[in-house]
């Protein structure tokens, strides 16, 4: 089946087959990352603009690396330095970038749905690098890529996502990806940040950390933002840590062969203790590396490449 | 002004319990029992065979944006949209720029209203600048001609101030219209809170925020004896609260919008800002409860909350677009579709909800074809299908969820004070 999507906006839109295609393509690119010379000519002559209207370090650098390894020219664009501060609308900013001959836009935006909006007003592909509390598709793809690397098939595997689910685009994209791949997802955290509405997305909602962790194959932690304390979602970071922080004792409740994940940036001592974050069970840094391969796949496919053309990279 | 003879239409006037094929006569701007032979000779004849002839529609909830936001709408363009939709009487909300919290601003509105296509009545603010801190001068607002008091769009959050507002307004026989929203529960909210907002990652507006203020207003109405009108009820629980209040004979009235009976939050899947309004579209259960409320009289009338915004204001990320949609030119076909066709309301009941009932809430001289009444008439074809196109329509703005949709039921003629103001697609 050929890849036919121009934009990568959400995981929700993707079929299981499309997720498999993205992961397979990422697998081929992942092998390239282990080579001495990591550059392939796939997107030579293309210009990719990273339009990041919300702060990001990891995702932006990851997309930049991915574009460069594909031999594309890449320009990154920060909200603070941009004309958006002069009142230019997203439509105008993006249409100008298109008129400047960009071939693709990677958008990070604080408003949910902004990438879909942009895909309606532009002719060039739009890749969602995180929109509000909605989706972060490449993050979920790199997460399931990493899980499959460690666990193989995810059918029937139990994945626990722990933390601020309500405001998390990472959680939503992962829920869609994991349920499509047959995994059994439980979300855990304080009731104010893990509302029952999520059950409609096909996951279990739990506020009991011990029972949720007991048979988990994957424990994915999400960053706790102190702003949520001010908005009354929990009393204090200290109370959060005392109830839901992953420490040495609680890590003992998890099966020994389970993996621990985090999309970063991590708050050591809040949602995860250092000895757990740095333990052999933690795959946090492997996630980061795999992120480049997944983003290479996303850029490559949305630029019109086909999966079969990258399945056998040559040294 | 020549007499008008509307012939052979199905004349529906709920106020006089008339529903019969016949004629309607208009002389000197008023509904007449009949015309003299001489008048008949000179009369403008409107052939209404196969059409419905009813009182001009009444909407006690519109935003015409004048003064101050005339790029969105003016009293003239808004009144033309009203005429095109069969409305002959509308009540303008005071959230203009500056807000109508003083007699001078109301006078500006009245001056523009004199050139409008339909009867346009102003309202005044509950509080100075709609800031929720100090009562506006209802006495001088009443003298200037306001027909109600409201901070529509903003709820008076202080219970004490709301209590004083309704007590003070009662002295002037002015009804307070309240937009029921506990803002402490809706910070940054852009749609109904629930399964869909969770999936879309949009900040939710829980119906509890409406219900709390509905309950508050019922309690204050009961305590003070003042009449409070609840605007655009969107939640099933609020409908139930009003139902109970009415059983208890509390002086509460309430309205529903066409969009809350026609659409649900499911429509927001593509982040289309033409489905963004306040209160937001809610669930199917809420929608059904509102329809049930209209059926059993819990909800008193239909109000459109016609809220124009310029295209560039709505063409934005969902979070940043303003709330509101236009509705005057689609209200009748939408209500015919939802209430008559899909929910088997009797046509006269729907006309009642769109005419007399709203007029009665604010004691407006409108909503009937009784002999001697002002000759405000709507003639429509209940079966004609047509495509609504915002660019062909009269409102200055295009923010409608029904653009390019097929509508059934079309206004043919609108008559205001005995003068044809709209006919067959044209403002006269």
Helices and strands, with pairings:
The complex is a heterodimer of chains A (about 325) and B (about 425).
Chain A: H1 16-33, E1 47-52, H2 58-69, E2 73-78, H3 90-99, E3 104-109, H4 114-121, E4 126-131, H5 137-151, E5 158-162, H6 169-180, E6 184-188, E7 204-206, H7 209-214, E8 218-221, H8 227-230, H9 237-244, H10 248-251, E9 259-261, H11 274-277, H12 284-302
Parallel strand pairs in A: 1-2, 1-3, 3-4, 5-6, 5-8, 6-7, 8-9
Helix pairs in contact in A: 1-5, 1-12, 2-12, 5-6, 5-12
Chain B: E1 4-13, E2 18-27, E3 30-32, H1 37-42, E4 44-47, E5 52-55, E6 57-62, H2 75-84, E7 87-92, H3 103-113, E8 119-122, H4 138-144, E9 148-150, H5 159-171, E10 175-178, E11 191-192, H6 195-200, E12 204-205, H7 207-224, E13 228-230, H8 236-247, E14 252-256, H9 258-262, H10 284-295, E15 301-302, H11 311-314, H12 331-342, H13 347-354, H14 356-361, E16 377-387, E17 406-416, E18 419-423, E19 426-427
Parallel strand pairs in B: 1-4, 1-5, 6-7, 7-8, 9-10, 10-13, 11-12, 13-14, 14-15
Antiparallel strand pairs in B: 1-2, 2-3, 5-16, 16-17, 17-18, 18-19
Helix pairs in contact in B: 3-4, 5-7, 7-8, 8-10
Quote the beta fraction of chain A: 5-15%
Q: Give the % helix of chain A.
A: 25-40%
Strand content of chain B: 15-25%
Rg of chain B, alpha carbons = 21 Å
Question: Which fold name is given in CATH as the topology of the largest domain in chain A?
Answer: Rossmann fold
> Could you tell me how far the N terminus lies from the C terminus of chain A, measured between alpha carbons in angstroms?
27 Å
Q: What is the mean predicted local confidence, pLDDT of chain A?
A: 94
Number of helices of chain A: 12
Describe the structure in your own words.
The complex is a heterodimer of chains A (315) and B (428). Chain A is of the alpha/beta class and 315 residues long. In chain A, 38% of the residues lie in helices and 14% in strands. In chain A, the strands form two sheets. In chain A, strands 7-6-5-8-9 form a five-stranded parallel sheet. In chain A, helix 4 links the parallel strand 3 (104-109) and strand 4 (126-131). The radius of gyration of chain A is 19 Å and the shape is globular. The relative contact order of chain A is 0.17. In chain B, the strands form four sheets. In chain B, strands 1, 2, 3, 4, 5, 16, 17, 18 and 19 form a nine-stranded mixed sheet that branches. In chain B, strands 9-10-13-14-15 form a five-stranded parallel sheet. In chain B, helix 3 (103-113) runs parallel beside helix 4 (138-144) and helix 8 runs parallel beside helix 10 (284-295). The longest helix of chain B is centred in the middle third of the chain and has 18 residues, at 207-224. The mean pLDDT of chain B is 98. The interface between A and B is medium-sized, with 26 and 20 residues.
């Amino acid at each position: 089946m050929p890849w036919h999507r121009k934009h990568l906006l959400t995981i929700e839109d993707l079929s299981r087959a499309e997720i498999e295609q993205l992961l397979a393509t990422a697998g081929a690119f992942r092998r390239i990352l282990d080579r001495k010379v990591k550059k392939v000519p796939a997107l030579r002559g293309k210009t990719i603009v990273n339009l990041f209207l919300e702060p990001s370090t990891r995702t932006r650098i990851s997309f930049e690396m991915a574009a460069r390894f594909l031999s594309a020219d890449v320009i990154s664009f920060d909200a603070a330095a941009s004309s958006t501060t002069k009142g230019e609308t997203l439509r105008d900013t993006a249409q100008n970038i298109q008129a400047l001959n960009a071939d693709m836009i990677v958008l990070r935006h604080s408003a949910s749905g902004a990438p879909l909006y942009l895909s309606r007003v532009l002719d060039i592909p739009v890749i969602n690098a995180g929109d509000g509390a909605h989706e972060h598709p490449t993050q979920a793809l790199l997460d399931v890529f990493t899980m499959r690397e460690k666990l193989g098939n995810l059918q029937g595997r139990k994945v626990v996502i722990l933390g601020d689910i309500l405001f998390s685009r990472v959680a939503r994209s992962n829920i869609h990806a994991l349920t499509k791949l047959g995994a059994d997802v439980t979300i855990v955290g304080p009731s104010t940040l893990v509302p029952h509405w999520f059950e409609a997305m096909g996951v279990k909602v739990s506020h009991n950390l011990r029972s949720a962790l007991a048979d988990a194959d994957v424990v994915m932690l999400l960053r706790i933002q102190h702003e949520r304390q001010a908005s009354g979602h929990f009393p204090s970071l200290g109370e959060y840590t005392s109830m839901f922080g992953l420490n040495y004792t609680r890590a003992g409740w998890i099966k020994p062969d389970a993996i621990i994940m985090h999309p970063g940036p991590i708050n050591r001592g809040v949602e995860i203790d250092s000895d757990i974050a740095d333990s052999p069970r933690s795959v946090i840094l492997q996630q980061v590396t795999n992120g480049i391969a997944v983003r290479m796949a996303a850029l490559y496919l949305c630029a019109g490449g086909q999966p079969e053309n990258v399945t056998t990279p040559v040294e | 002004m020549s007499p008008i003879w509307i012939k052979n239409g199905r004349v529906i006037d709920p106020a006089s319990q008339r529903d019969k094929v016949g004629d309607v006569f208009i002389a000197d701007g008023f509904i007449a029992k009949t015309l003299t032979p001489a008048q008949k000779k000179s009369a403008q004849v409107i052939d209404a065979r196969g059409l419905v002839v009813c009182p001009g529609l009444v909407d006690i909830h519109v935003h015409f944006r004048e003064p101050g936001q005339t790029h969105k709408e003016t009293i003239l363009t808004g009144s033309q949209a009203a005429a095109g939709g069969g409305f002959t009487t509308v009540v303008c909300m005071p959230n203009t720029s500056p807000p109508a919290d003083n007699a001078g601003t109301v006078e500006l509105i009245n001056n523009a209203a004199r050139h409008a296509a339909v009867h346009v009545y102003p309202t005044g603010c509950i509080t100075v600048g709609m800031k929720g801190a100090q009562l506006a001068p209802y006495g001088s607002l009443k003298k200037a001609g306001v027909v109600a008091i409201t901070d529509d769009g903003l709820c008076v959050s202080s219970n004490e101030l709301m209590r004083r507002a309704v007590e003070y307004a009662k002295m002037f026989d002015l009804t307070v219209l309240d937009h029921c929203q506990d803002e402490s529960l809706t910070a940054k909210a852009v749609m109904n809170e629930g399964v869909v907002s969770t999936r879309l990652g949009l900040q939710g507006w829980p119906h509890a925020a409406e219900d709390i203020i509905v309950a508050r207003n019922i309690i204050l109405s009961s305590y003070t004896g003042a009449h409070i009108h609840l605007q655009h009820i969107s939640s099933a629980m609020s409908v139930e609260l009003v139902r109970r209040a009415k059983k208890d004979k509390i002086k509460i009235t309430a309205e529903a919008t066409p969009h809350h009976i026609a659409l649900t939050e499911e429509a927001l899947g593509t982040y289309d800002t033409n489905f963004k309004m306040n209160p937001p579209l809610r669930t199917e259960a809420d929608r059904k409860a509102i329809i049930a409320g209209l059926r059993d009289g819990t909800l008193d009338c239909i109000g459109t909350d016609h809220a124009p915004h310029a295209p560039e204001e709505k063409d934005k990320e969902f979070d940043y677009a303003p709330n509101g949609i236009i509705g005057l030119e689609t209200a009748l076909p939408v209500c015919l579709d939802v209430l008559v066709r899909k929910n088997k309301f009797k046509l006269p009941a729907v006309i009642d909800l769109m005419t007399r009932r709203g007029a009665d809430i604010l004691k407006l001289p409108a909503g009937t074809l009784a002999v001697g009444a002002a000759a405000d008439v709507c003639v429509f074809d209940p079966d004609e299908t047509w495509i609504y196109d915002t660019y062909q329509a009269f409102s200055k703005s295009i923010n409608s969820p029904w653009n390019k949709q097929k509508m059934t039921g079309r206004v043919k003629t609108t008559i205001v004070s005995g003068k044809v103001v709209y006919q067959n697609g044209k403002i006269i």
